[in-house]
Amino acid sequence: MPIRIPNDLPAQEVLSEENIFVMGMDRAAHQDIRPLEVGILNLMPNKIETEVQLLRLLSNTPLQINVDLIRIDHEAPKNTPKAHMDAFYHRFDDVAGKKYDGLIVTGAPLAMLDYEDVKYWDKMQMVMDWARRHVQSTLFLCWAAHAALYHYFSINRVLRQEKLSGVFTHRVNLEHDELLRGFDPLFNAPHSRFGEVPLEDYAACTELEVLASSDEAGVYLAASRDKRLVFVTGHPEYDPDTLSQEYWRDLAAGLNPDVPQNYFPGDDPDLNPLVTWRSHGSLLFTNWLNYYVYQTTPYNLSDIA
């Protein structure tokens, strides 16, 4: 089944060329079914790239999904035209009265800032409190995952000496959890971050379950026991060349980055990267939509509390 997005959103053309079924607003209006309502709070500077990555993963499901792109700040974003923001994004204040089956909150390039020093931290806290009352299940990615752990459970991250960058092997810790249904016991996923929350801090919080972790990269996937909060510290949505682009960007900026681990053949950045994570990334989003959202959300969204 398709995802439903605005007719002229650039992601529609990209996904259609990949043979992914997307549906424009006009056609979807004639479908007599109850679609899922999913919001994407996109905090990344290059919003169009992130939209494509997330919509690609959301499309691999038999459910019809209405997607709202959401912003919380009023400043012009880096690397995204103002016209695009005006045409396709809702200000949070304009959708705050709405309820959603699911919400995705992306990462953000804010690794070195204390949360309270983030210019929109007050708004982020407002959104996270709002999500508990207005969203059946919220999925937080990378920086947003750590920010949400801090907000909801007072679990603070520590900063690594070196950036964690690369593709790492993870093990399934709770094989019977629906979010991991169909996963291999070991699977790969990309990471790109400075922040880290130690495993013992998750374990000390009785409201959380650690679902998947790595000896090298730490906790990758955790969730609240009521399934309404999901924390993904990596980037299952990444394109094959995303880590490569980050590496060459940082190199050009004089940051002397390490070569992403387990990514380029022979750790040679001049070679095309190995892609070993996309099937499990797709399965993670499909399971979240099916088991954490669709199977638990009320038919009448007004009943979410």
UniProtKB/TrEMBL annotation:
InterPro entries according to UniProt: Class_I_gatase-like, HST_MetA, MetA_family
Tree of life domain: Bacteria
Pathway entry: Amino-acid biosynthesis; L-methionine biosynthesis via de novo pathway; O-succinyl-L-homoserine from L-homoserine: step 1/1
Entry annotated with the keyword Transferase: yes
One Pfam match: HTS
Cellular component GO terms, alphabetical: cytoplasm
One Gene Ontology molecular-function label: homoserine O-acetyltransferase activity
UniProt keyword list: Acyltransferase, Amino-acid biosynthesis, Cytoplasm, Methionine biosynthesis, Transferase
EC number: 2.3.1.46
Record-annotated active site: C142 (acyl-thioester intermediate), H235 (proton acceptor), E237
Binding site for substrate: K163, S192, R249
Top class in the EC scheme: transferase
Protein known as: Homoserine O-succinyltransferase
Site annotation Important for substrate specificity: residues: S192
Cross-referenced Gene3D superfamilies: 3.40.50.880
